[in-house]
Hints:
Elements: H1 3-14, H2 16-20, H3 27-40, E1 55-56, H4 64-74, E2 81-90, E3 93-101, E4 105-115, E5 118-128, H5 152-168, E6 185-186, H6 195-207, E7 212-223, E8 226-235, E9 238-249, E10 252-262
Parallel strand pairs: 1-5, 6-10
Antiparallel strand pairs: 2-3, 3-4, 4-5, 7-8, 8-9, 9-10
Amino acid sequence: MNKTILSLTIALTLGATICKSQSKMDNKQKVVALLKAIETGDNEPVGYINTCKYIQHNLAVGDGLAGFGAVLQALPKGSTKVNTVRVFQDGNFVFTHTDYNFFGPKIGFDIFRFENGKIVEHWDNLQETAKPNPSGHTMIDGTTEINDLDKTFANKALVRNFVEDILINGKMEKLAEYFDGDNYIQHNPQIPDKLSGLGTTLGELAKQGIFLKYDKIHKVLGEGNFVLVVSEGHFGKSHNSFYDLFRVENGKITEHWDVIEPIMPKENWKNSNGKF
């Protein structure tokens, strides 16, 4: 039994005692430490999870701490790598952008909800790591600096309006309002930089009968100049979960990262909490 599985077993045994323990670390630090522990087997970060209440929304994982432990136990020994590149906090939510080797190379967004300093709920989206896009950007590189904390509310509103106007309602005549001309850095593996690159790619897909359609926004989380939008919709015939991270500068969308994950059929779910 590796260290991580052992620590999970101890946490489950201690139960309510673990639920009440506290840490001097802030919530961002707890999340980064917990994710890194998947790689290192460090015992302590498991204690940041409320063993009495841990709601899991990764549909391939069983509910609660036991479900989390079962996945870790299935990992080939020494195979996992975790490098959290970006971490943000919005109220009781911490969300991260991470470069994983987790049953193979993947890029992921994770969202954790806290109550009384303990993690009580988790959502994520994972996509196989792709080669750099036509402009040479990877799915994870780019700036990490958080600024404009006083503009968090305004930036969240801007990005929500963009997703609703353009990606849900298809009001393409409003597209230019959200950008500073053609200045736009893109990290989607298939799309080059610039607003014109986005338009060209979507046009080419449409010619092939492949359409990108967002149906509903589930969450908008932000800190300063970064905003994460969690949505569901369709890419072609596939029903997908979309996690889009935007960087805003001077009231305009400047940079974009995303992870797209198909939503598995309900009969294959390992928990009943739903993707969102």
